[in-house]
Amino acid sequence: MAKITSRLLAAGLAGLAVGGGLWLGLAGSEPASDTSSTAATAPSPASDSADAPSLDPSAQRALLDAPAVQDYQARLQFGADYQGFIKSAADLDEAQRRQRAAALAKEIDRREAAGELALSEALLLQVGLAQAEGGDEDAQKARADALVARYQALSQEREARNKTSDARFSQYKSDEKRIVDEVLSMDSIPDGLSRDQYLRQRLQEAREQAYQ
After folding, report:
1. Angle separating helix axes 2-19 and 119-132, nearest 10 degrees
2. How far apart are CA 204 and CA 212, in angstroms?
3. Residues 176 and 17 sit within 8 Å (Cβ to Cβ)
4. pTM of the entire structure?
5. Residue boundaries of the structural domains of the chain
6. Count of CB atoms within 10 A of residue 117's CB?
7. pLDDT value at position 23?
8. d(CA 179, CA 177)
């Protein structure tokens, strides 16, 4: 399945990048920059504990209840849930795998629709779920084929609605294709990250540069 997944991702991600329909939610409200800023500045649970003595209880609670902090913590939890499923999927029975994979797939769709994930990132995560669900090689390939077709159709649909993309998006689109090609061709990923984590990090950096 690894070879099948690699071929499908190479074709699917390259198709999305070349098609130009990636992350059209970037234009206008620029949610990615806001989210990354939150990630850079929001305190982690560890720092909350360290800072607690300098804050009165009400101030500390107000900080923890701030939408930006809660959003950041939700993103961390989603990442942990996804990686946890990928690592433990083989130990679950078929019904549990399907249930958890369906819930994660729905959350990926929600985050992509909200502009928190590029189509290429969402496809990479969804194919990871399809592989983790198991089954014979033909079944996994069929699921991955369907996902690639689905995201390419989304890309084309959005491109048709946004033919007048601005210069910033054009720059990001060019950078995205280069980054996708580069990450897919890497033999090893730095900093102990998975390939999808590293790709998301690089694409986030490209969005920040294009939309700063």
Report:
1. 160
2. 12
3. yes
4. 0.55
5. 2-43+76-211
6. 23
7. 32
8. 5
